[in-house]
Amino acid sequence: MKKILITIFALILLLPNSLLAAEETAIDKGPSIRILNPLTAEVEKEFFPFEGSTTITGLSVATVNLNTDSYPEIIVGAGAGEKPLVKIFDYKGVFLSQFLAYSEDMTTGIRVSSIMLSSNKPAIITAPIEGGNSQIRVFDSSGKLLFDFFAFDENLLSGATISAGDVNGDGANEIIVGSGYRMAPIVKIYANTGHFLKQFSVIDSKFDSGINVLGSDINNDGKAEILISPQMNFPPEVSIYDFNGNLLNSFLAYNQNFNGGVNLSSADVDNDENIEIITGAGLSGGAHIRFYNYQGINKLDPKFFAYPDFRGGLSVSAADIDKDGQVEIIVAMLNYFNNKNYQAYKTIKIDLSKQKLYAYFRGLLENEFIISTGRWKYPTPEGSFKILSKFLKTDMARDYGPDNPDNYNLPNVPHVMYFYRDYAIHGAYWHWRFGTRVSHGCVNLKLKDAKWLYEWSDMGIPVIIYSSKK
What we know:
4-stranded antiparallel beta sheet, mainly beta, single chain
């Protein structure tokens, strides 16, 4: 027996390192929920609501006490790539129940929030994210649909954001809805029966990248204020409004140059009998949580990170989840991709080897095009750049000397986006040799493709140019 054991041990030592390493490689469990102590940043619990799913790309989270045990439950909404499931967990991360919020073939993802109805019964609110419409649904604790309504034109696939609070001081909570992607920034307020009450515009009327909303009485006046923050493509400003749409205060939650969005929650996290505003950084930022008072003054540790190396954005909620007298912060990975494509909310990637351009939105591939880049004599530069300027049409010319065959003069080049010096992405009407290197360094697209990309792109978004084969 001793000789057999020695032989087995020797065989193990002779196994290839790669095989042993494979045994030690952690299995990807998908996006997680973490419960953290806001005073110490300690992770009290972590669990994976959709473990086993290979398609889900993120989560949203809310908290509400759904039963009579006095412990708040954790409500999780499925992100894009999964059926529109709402899953309910206890404070230990133990699964309790689930239900479909919409038709199971709607896989664009959902947001979740909660509300106390006039009957003093808790309810769950859901809304689709961009790619879905603005159908707001309200469910009881068992997943039974109580009522629903469209907050905006039902044909718009811009999604919506949701929250609740007694914003008019009538003793009942109202439903607060924020406009979605590619919509004017509008807040709509509904009674907790779905009856429309009022609306008002926020931020800048030209801003159309979606707003996050939160209802919370952060100044102790007996009414919930309406907090607004951008979903993306805008400085990380938190604005505070009253029920009538009057701006009460605003402040920057993160650096002025960060445009990945800000997600909101609130709670008395330091037990000073004042509600703090809790912010979670959006896509491309670190997993940064901050705490502010009504005046926008930062409280607690300004370097609180929910994850050490995650840039997909955080959905945030807060509650004394385990009834220990200390509010916990509950965070969810808002965008989660195996490709770790977290550079920005929109990214253009250009593969010179494949002569392909890829357009990513929130880390997911939204479109791809065959292109023509610079020939070997005039190569397209590799590296990381960004959209510097945009022109609907412009003239392009280059003179390399008298009678030089490389000279060109091209009037009215359409949908031009410069990303580095005089290098641009643009439409090309003078050739059809797409898929080959024919340009003087610019990135040529077919006219319809250039138009789509021009309308889709925003100033400042990354342009990453590389060769997959060298």
